[in-house]
Amino acid sequence: MAGSTDFDLYRPAEEHDMLRETIRALAESKIAPFAAEVDEEGRFPQEALDALVASDLHAVHVPEEYGGAGADALATVIVIEEVARACASSSLIPAVNKLGSLPVILSGSEELKRKYLGPLAKGDAMFSYALSEPDAGSDAAGMKTKAVRDGDFWVLNGVKRWITNAGVSEYYTV
């Protein structure tokens, strides 16, 4: 059966195909018209964020119990890929929302999940992921930034460089 043209093992589910059609249409109509301007001006693609939020496609990976769509990894990648077809810069909105929020989803307390994932799912907040450092680049094993507990607080000490969506995100994962 592997040689058969009707072998569907690797064919995406119908829901994924419908999602691709939806996000492609959105990207072509609402994101692509601003792509050259975004790149030429080196600015944040606010039009893309607004369009993605209005269509609930900015953070599809957020679990349903926190107000998200609960989309699987393939659906998330489809959103990122289709936005990137229209504007590579804009694709970092859903990509970094996932990258920055994944530690909260996987390891956060219930309190943290409710506090941060709800606003993300509603489109009231965005995540950034602060990894790059002067001496380590994006090598996580080479990071020198440390968080040290000081009473009821944590003191964060280090230097970061090139934080995607810095200045527009409400939440930063370090």
Automatic annotation (TrEMBL):
Residues 14-124 form the Acyl-CoA dehydrogenase/oxidase N-terminal domain. It holds the Pfam family Acyl-CoA_dh_M. InterPro entries: Acyl-CoA_DH_CS, Acyl-CoA_Oxase/DH_mid-dom, Acyl-CoA_Oxase/DH_mid-dom_sf, AcylCoA_DH/ox_N, AcylCoA_DH/ox_N_sf, AcylCoA_DH/oxidase_NM_dom_sf. It comes from the Bacteria. Residues 129-174 form the Acyl-CoA oxidase/dehydrogenase middle domain. One of its GO terms (molecular function) is flavin adenine dinucleotide binding. Gene3D superfamilies: Acyl-CoA dehydrogenase/oxidase, N-terminal domain, Butyryl-CoA Dehydrogenase, subunit A, domain 2. Transmembrane segments: none annotated. This is Acyl-CoA dehydrogenase. It comes from Streptomyces sp. SID7499.
